[in-house]
Design goal:
169 residues, alpha+beta, 2 domains, three-stranded antiparallel sheet, 7 strands
Length: 169
């Protein structure tokens, strides 16, 4: 039958888009279009997916009105959350078995702390120098400049190095 052949070819294209592989899982899993809802993964990719059909829903409020369904995890499936450039396919668990639900990435809601760009703290390229400077600062309250303390350590090192070279020659 031509329609079945076309349907299976389209299904194969969809699964390839997501890089989904049934692995050793027996049987196929039906597809379901959920691109019209707002959604989130509140517990990461091993928990559940929450979704609601209105944009202003607080998907992170446990008491808010939204639907929630467990992500289907099975040892024979390589992954249960498959992210594409524009869409994400999630294998969810229903009473009748697993189903592949496709969500629109533009409608994914992330917690506020994830949506804001996180600027990492600057890394001290000379942590030992900073520690030495802290020691010097503890001994001499007037010396609160890290670089002054560092300079003192370098000068002491150079002095000791010169004495060692004199003794060796």
């Amino acid at each position: 039958m031509k329609q079945l052949t076309e349907y299976l070819a389209i299904e194969r294209e969809i699964l390839e888009y997501f890089g989904f592989d049934y692995g050793a899982y027996e049987g196929s899993i039906p597809l379901d279009d959920y691109t019209n809802v707002y959604w989130t993964l509140p517990d990461g990719e091993a928990g559940s997916v929450r979704y609601c059909d209105y944009e202003k829903a607080d998907l992170y409020d446990d008491d808010a009105i939204h639907a929630e369904i467990e992500i289907f995890l099975h040892e024979d499936l390589e992954k249960s959350v498959c992210r594409g450039a524009e869409y994400t396919m999630i294998v969810v668990s229903l009473e009748s078995g697993p189903i592949l639900r496709i969500f629109d990435n533009a409608k994914e809601r992330k917690p506020e702390h994830e949506e804001k760009a996180i600027t990492p703290e600057p890394i001290d390229p000379y942590p030992a120098h900073t520690a030495l400077a802290a020691l010097f600062q503890g001994e001499d309250p007037a010396n609160d400049d890290i670089y002054t303390a560092e300079l003192a350590v370098v000068e002491e090192f150079e002095s000791l190095k010169a004495k060692l070279e004199a003794v060796q020659s």
